[in-house]
Amino acid sequence: MMALVSFCESFVRLDKQPNSFAGRPYLPQIYDSAKRNLVLRCGRQVEKTTLLANLIVFNAVQYPGIKMLLCCPRREQAEMFSRSRLRPIISGSPLIARCLLGSNRRLRDPMNLTFENESELTIRSAFRSAEAARGQSADILLLDEFQDIASGDLPVLMETLSHSPRKQVVITGTPKHVDNHLEAVFSQSSACEWLIPCDCGKDVRLDEQAIGPSGLICPNCRNQVHVINGRWVPGYPESALGSGYTVSQLMVPWLDFSEIVAKQAEYDPIRFKNECLGLPTVLGDHVLTREEIESCCNRRPMSKKLADVPRDSHPYLVAGLDWGSGGAAATLLTVGYLSGRNKFIVVHFARFQGSEDPNRVIDFVTKLCREFRVRVVGTDGSGNGVLHNWTLADKLQGQAKIVGITYSDSNHKIQPQGPLLKWTIDRTENMGFVFHWIRKRQVEFPRLEDVRSFVEEFLNVIAEYDDYSHSIRYTKPETKRDDAVHSATYALIVARNLACPPSPDFS
Ligand SMILES: [Zn+2]
Question: Are residues 492 and 452 in the same domain?
């Protein structure tokens, strides 16, 4: 029987081109493993869908009468796969088309494909439940975007194989957090990693530490290393389940390395790890370490007045303000500016206890905004904040733009709202951005002894996975505070968008 790799090279045509394995030294072993159970944990855009389509076509041709069942979380994904990934391969590869389509050359129903040689592919969606797949029977079960398929449904889906002598499962997905069911099956597989030996004797693993400024590096000796020199090393060689591989964007031949570096700067760190590196994130884990936060503190004392701030940055001073809602929550003010070197410099933090009279708090805040002549105040625009913001705007008499910020799950345009501006932003993305800048030491705090109680609030933030929205959410333990984090987030985003210094090295 022909192997999948040579089948693809000989018969599969995509846009009239033969399948190429050039520059992909990691692919042949994965393709070879696809004759048994296979688990692929992948970053986005690493030819995972191509592999699924090739595998389906190969089996349909080689094993006439075979039954395959493909499940995706959503119906649109399922139809998209059928119409725009599978169909072009079948109709564009002459010998395959002749074998599977015969003379009528048509595939009517994209969800139920019956081929000329009696091979079958059924496609179903299983987002909330696997009900749609119940009662099907298959020889090969393919589960795509497995991380989003209802988590308890694997047993129901496996039942579809109960009458088959072959009983093969192919699971592919993009990692989320370590508690996701993709990780559970991956850890039962051989869990292979692509390791690149370095001249210093260490094996380089493809994670954040291997990302150098212009290419992959060994974190131990900082020498450049190359994907082509790597090999698959199993984490669990005795696996009874089958083979598993992690495929990352750092491995693919067409990706420009500067794009990776740009994504690392743009994406929130969790998304970068999942979608680019193909690695899961550890949740419940604190987002920042003490070392990361303390290494952002420098030796200068906290500025008490405008004259303590370098003169050339005066035009760019902004404030971030998180209103306390009474009770335990304090009101927190962060004053800072964006330097031409793409750093955010915090010059002042102030905290007003929740028990304080709100009018006194507004007076203090006004006084500090006046003292530092801030140009923009990014402030909490929900709840009590709305009323306080109008009062603050009144008191500042046009000295600063007041931007009332509301957290949401997507970013919107800034809109006028009476004398204020109103801005709805993606909570996870923008908080993640601050953490990312801290980790890269692009945030500078005053000396630790002056700001300890403020920066320690950053250590309280934990990442949590929200199963309903399928996304990460930053949160904190009930008893801990994170007001400083929100006020710094507001300050940094208004600085980047509304008070950016005109500097050539700013990007
Ligand atoms: Zn090395």
Answer: yes
- Residue 222 CA, ligand 1 centroid: distance in Å: 6
For the stretch 382-433, pLDDT in tens is: 887 888 999 999 999 889 999 999 999 889 999 998 889 999 999 988 998 8
What local confidence, expressed as pLDDT, does residue 466 receive? 62
Structural domains counted in the chain: 3
Q: Distance (Å, rounded) from C-alpha 87 to C-alpha 16?
A: 13
Compute, in angstroms, the gap from residue 196 CA to the centroid of ligand 1.
10
CATH number of the domain bearing residue 341: 3.30.420.240
Does residue 507 sit within a domain? no
Same domain? For 317 and 340 the reply is: yes
Residue 506 lies in a domain: no
> DSSP secondary-structure letter at 267?
S
Q: What is the pLDDT of residue 284?
A: 55
Crossing angle for the helix pair 385-396 and 358-371, to the nearest 10 degrees:
50
Q: What is the pTM of this model?
A: 0.61
Cα of 258 to ligand 1 centre, how many Å? 22
Q: How far apart are CA 377 and CA 384, in angstroms?
A: 16
Judge contact between 248 and 47, C-beta under 8 A.
Answer: no
Domain that residue 207 falls in = 196-231+253-281
Tell me how far the alpha carbon of residue 31 lies from the centroid of ligand 1, in angstroms. Answer: 30
Same domain, 268 and 240: no
Can you tell me the distance from the alpha carbon of 232 to that of 194, in angstroms, rounded to the nearest whole number? Answer: 5
Cα 280 to middle of ligand 1, angstroms = 25
